[in-house]
Amino acid sequence: MYNIDIYFRYIFIAVFSCCILQSCTIVNPKEMTPTYVHIDSFSFKRDSSVSLSLSNSHQINSVWVYYNDNPIGVYDLPATFPVNATGSGKISVYPGVPVSGLNSFLARYPFYAADTFTLTAQPGTIVAHKPVTHYFSNTRIYPQTSINFDFNITSFTRSDGTVDMGVTNDSTQVFEGLGSAIISLKAPKDTLSESYCTIDFSIPANTAAYIELNYKNTAPFYLGLRSNLSGGIVYKRYLSGIYPSDHWQKFYLAVKDFVAQYTGDTYTLFIKADLPAGQESGTVLLDNIQLVYFD
Question: In CATH terms, is domain 35-133 a member of 2.60.40?
Answer without folding.
Answer: yes
